[in-house]
């Protein structure tokens, strides 16, 4: 009889072994499904970006003869982002390859829209949205969209509308001549890729702990069975193959089950937004070789762990049934955590070197792995405290258990410790990242703006204002120029940006900090401090070869600069010296909540493809990214908490099964079940309390280290940072609650069964 046949016979005749095998298979299935899902996330983002690569990347030379002018920009409607691509045919497009999902190029005045944008156009007045694009003539297919809900418009123009001079093409607001749509390979989202690796580290460990806890349900019975087989003459190789056969059956079935449920997990993840929208079901695909490797590697790890657990039986089988001496854990285990911490600190401080994020991930993995080494020592130390200062039988029983088998006792806490570590790290990073959000251009929150060239700004203003008048609006657009004030000569020259607009307009339309009270008659220059205007020259662009024109004795006023804008001076249009050409221009228009989309439509139609922005839209990407991080954090912590609770419950049950004979003897001697239950809860909850506090502190420190790689800014601590420790202890108590029914089961069964 080979090892697999023997394993099948054991499963048929032993109910507890079947239960352990089923739970092991479930644990392996969960681990396999999670790893397959998380490993597919970088590939999913790459597939998504590949579909939408035609929507951007137009500021490059495609080679060949240009056949069209193209520019890409972002538009917005009530806080929703619209991606628009403006195109004008300039040559023969017979051989032009269109991106998937695009049936044809739009002509002048026509547009192709995504289904979501088409529905929005049908339900919105034209002066608020539709007039920005033209007449919809076709729909974009799903293969042309990053995600199903994406709002996209491919807008057609005449060549004259998008044509520009060579100087104007240096700006992003002007269409570029290209010979083809972009076809380079897209890159995976670096943030989600990093989160996927962190998720694999964070969720795989509690999954494997669940597998190990399931395997321990019949550890004592298996050791006695293997010891008997060894005494009957079986070789170490035969015993090893028997255990490997038992483990392969459950782990193999679990891995195949995880592979089978992975499409369902992928289907659930398609409803989780990332980067502004959800996913297509076809996004989540893994290379076959990688999928096969994962399906084989996880069961192999489980089998390896099971075989390594046979060392005591193979070394001295008599002690498998007769007990064994307990070796105290050495103090050097405590050194593993600071060593891993120092490596992580080195990885964080050398982030810009060749190691990069990979070194940080290795340091994070070492910190997670160090808990496996340090945790049992902490458990043993807690047990020693119980033994020395016990005040009742429950505390003494719990202390003896923690001292005699700290590794087994820590197993119930391992998943919880990791979940608390992850939660504390995440709740340190999130508020700190949120504190970095903000910024924006110098214009007021209610102002819309579109960059233009100085030569075309007046025409854009006239077009926008005539459209606003036709819409019956009172708001009007103005052009704001930009120049630089130069001080000094040679290498000591310094440049300071100055907006060219009136003081009254600046007080009404900017966030510089200037107020109407600061505006004085006759003042031509406003600065945050007193200065001598005669020391400055004015240039359009900061070029070392341009000496500029002297500013002269212009009266200077001062104002208090706002903290969240870049330093800028204000120069009245009448004070600009003759001969100075503006370096840049921006068309701006004030709005109210009632007319914002109408004003945006007028400005967008006048700017012909230039992006119309505002401060809330400037912050759009920040807020979207923060929302994604919050969502992923909540999902990850919930998953880690569930896995940790399950592993704690299974580990507690395994502990009871492992000591079935001991508990049976204590009950037969008259020990109440409630005393044993209290002892089991103490041996689970109190080490968990100590370990989770330590894990919380380490998680906070790791979060501070990771935040330091994001640049400047101070760490922000939220009261929620203590929530993981509280929840961790609660999960430990919840997992330990299984002890009473398990003890009742032991009490109901005859002790002779053992």
Automatic annotation (TrEMBL):
<dbReference type="Pfam" id="PF02687">
    <property type="entry name" value="FtsX"/>
</dbReference>
<feature type="transmembrane region" description="Helical">
    <location>
        <begin position="194"/>
        <end position="215"/>
    </location>
</feature>
<feature type="transmembrane region" description="Helical">
    <location>
        <begin position="720"/>
        <end position="743"/>
    </location>
</feature>
<feature type="transmembrane region" description="Helical">
    <location>
        <begin position="248"/>
        <end position="272"/>
    </location>
</feature>
<feature type="transmembrane region" description="Helical">
    <location>
        <begin position="331"/>
        <end position="348"/>
    </location>
</feature>
<keyword id="KW-1133">Transmembrane helix</keyword>
<feature type="transmembrane region" description="Helical">
    <location>
        <begin position="634"/>
        <end position="657"/>
    </location>
</feature>
<feature type="transmembrane region" description="Helical">
    <location>
        <begin position="408"/>
        <end position="430"/>
    </location>
</feature>
<feature type="transmembrane region" description="Helical">
    <location>
        <begin position="21"/>
        <end position="43"/>
    </location>
</feature>
<feature type="transmembrane region" description="Helical">
    <location>
        <begin position="684"/>
        <end position="708"/>
    </location>
</feature>
<keyword id="KW-1003">Cell membrane</keyword>
<feature type="domain" description="ABC3 transporter permease C-terminal">
    <location>
        <begin position="637"/>
        <end position="745"/>
    </location>
</feature>
<protein>
    <submittedName>
        <fullName>ABC transporter permease</fullName>
    </submittedName>
</protein>
<dbReference type="InterPro" id="IPR003838">
    <property type="entry name" value="ABC3_permease_C"/>
</dbReference>
<dbReference type="InterPro" id="IPR050250">
    <property type="entry name" value="Macrolide_Exporter_MacB"/>
</dbReference>
<feature type="transmembrane region" description="Helical">
    <location>
        <begin position="284"/>
        <end position="310"/>
    </location>
</feature>
<keyword id="KW-0472">Membrane</keyword>
<feature type="transmembrane region" description="Helical">
    <location>
        <begin position="360"/>
        <end position="387"/>
    </location>
</feature>
<comment type="similarity">
    <text>Belongs to the ABC-4 integral membrane protein family.</text>
</comment>
<feature type="domain" description="ABC3 transporter permease C-terminal">
    <location>
        <begin position="199"/>
        <end position="316"/>
    </location>
</feature>
<dbReference type="GO" id="GO:0005886">
    <property type="term" value="C:plasma membrane"/>
</dbReference>
<dbReference type="GO" id="GO:0022857">
    <property type="term" value="F:transmembrane transporter activity"/>
</dbReference>
<keyword id="KW-0812">Transmembrane</keyword>
């Amino acid at each position: 009889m080979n090892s697999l046949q023997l394993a099948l016979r054991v499963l048929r005749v032993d109910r507890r072994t079947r239960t352990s095998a089923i739970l092991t298979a479930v644990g392996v299935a969960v681990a396999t499904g999670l790893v397959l899902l998380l490993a597919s996330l970088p590939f999913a983002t790459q597939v998504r970006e590949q579909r939408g690569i035609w929507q951007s990347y137009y500021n490059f030379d495609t080679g060949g003869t240009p056949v069209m002018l193209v520019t890409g920009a972002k538009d917005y409607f009530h806080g929703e982002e619209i991606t628009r691509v403006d195109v004008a045919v300039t040559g023969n497009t017979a051989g032009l390859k269109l991106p998937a999902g695009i049936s044809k190029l739009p002509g002048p005045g026509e547009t192709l829209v995504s289904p979501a944008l088409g529905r929005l156009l049908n339900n919105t007045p034209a002066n608020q949205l539709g007039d920005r694009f033209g007449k919809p003539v076709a729909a974009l297919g799903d293969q042309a969209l990053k995600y199903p809900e994406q709002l996209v418009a491919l807008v057609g123009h005449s060549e004259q509308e998008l044509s520009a001079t060579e100087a104007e093409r240096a700006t992003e607001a002007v269409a570029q001549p290209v010979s083809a749509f972009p076809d380079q390979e897209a890159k995976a989202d670096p943030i989600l890729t990093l989160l996927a690796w962190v998720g694999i580290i964070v969720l795989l460990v509690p999954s494997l702990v669940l597998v190990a806890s399931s395997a321990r349900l019949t550890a004592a019975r298996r050791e006695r069975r293997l010891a008997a087989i060894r005494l009957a003459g079986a070789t170490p190789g035969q015993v090893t193959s028997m255990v490997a056969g038992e483990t392969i059956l459950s782990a193999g079935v679990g891995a195949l089950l995880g592979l089978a449920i992975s499409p369902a997990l992928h289907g659930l993840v398609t409803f989780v937004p990332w980067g502004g929208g959800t996913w297509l079901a076809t996004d989540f695909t893994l290379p076959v070789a990688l999928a096969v490797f994962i399906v084989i590697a996880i069961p192999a790890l489980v089998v390896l762990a099971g075989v390594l657990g046979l060392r005591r039986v193979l070394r001295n089988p008599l002690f498998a049934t007769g007990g064994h001496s307990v070796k105290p854990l050495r103090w050097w285990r405590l050194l593993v955590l600071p060593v891993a911490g120092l490596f992580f600190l080195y990885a964080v401080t050398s982030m810009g070197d060749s190691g990069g994020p990979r070194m940080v991930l290795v340091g994070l993995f070492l910190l997670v792995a160090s808990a496996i080494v340090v945790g049992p020592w902490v458990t043993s130390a807690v047990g020693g405290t119980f033994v020395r200062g016990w005040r009742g039988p429950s505390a003494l029983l719990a202390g003896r258990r923690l001292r005699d088998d700290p590794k087994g006792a820590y197993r119930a806490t391992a998943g919880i410790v990791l979940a608390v570590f992850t939660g504390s790290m995440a709740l340190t990073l999130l508020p700190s990242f949120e504190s970095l959000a903000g910024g924006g251009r110098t214009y007021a929150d209610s102002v819309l703006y579109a960059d233009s060239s100085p030569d075309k700004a007046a025409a854009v203003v006239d077009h926008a204002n005539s459209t606003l008048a036709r819409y019956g609006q009172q708001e009007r657009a103005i052009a704001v120029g930009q120049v630089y004030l130069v001080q000094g000569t040679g290498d000591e020259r310094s440049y300071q940006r100055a907006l060219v607009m009136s003081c009254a307009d600046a007080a009404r339309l900017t966030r510089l900090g200037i107020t109407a009270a600061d505006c004085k008659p006759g003042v031509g220059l406003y600065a945050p401090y007193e200065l001598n205007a005669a020391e400055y020259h004015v240039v359009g662009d900061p070029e070392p070869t341009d000496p500029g024109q002297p500013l002269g004795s212009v009266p200077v006023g001062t104002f208090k600069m706002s903290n969240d804008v870049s330093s800028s001076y204000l120069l009245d249009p009448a004070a600009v010296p003759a001969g100075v050409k503006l370096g840049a221009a921006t068309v701006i228009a004030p709005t109210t909540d009632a007319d914002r989309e109408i004003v945006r439509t007028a400005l967008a139609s006048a700017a012909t493809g230039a992006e119309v922005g505002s401060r809330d839209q400037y912050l759009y990407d920040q807020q979207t990214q923060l929302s994604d991080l919050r969502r992923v954090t909540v999902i990850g912590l919930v998953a880690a908490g569930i896995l940790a609770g399950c592993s704690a419950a299974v580990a507690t049950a395994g502990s009871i099964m492992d000591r079935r004979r001991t508990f049976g003897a204590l009950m037969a001697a008259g020990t109440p079940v409630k005393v044993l239950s209290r002892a089991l809860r103490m041996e689970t909850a109190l080490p968990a309390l100590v370990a989770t506090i330590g894990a919380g502190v380490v998680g906070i420190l790791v979060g501070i280290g990771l935040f330091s790689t994001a640049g400047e800014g101070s760490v922000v601590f939220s009261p929620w940072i203590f929530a993981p420790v509280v929840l961790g202890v609660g999960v430990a108590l919840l997992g330990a609650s299984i002890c009473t029914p398990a003890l009742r089961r032991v009490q109901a069964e005859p002790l002779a069964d053992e």
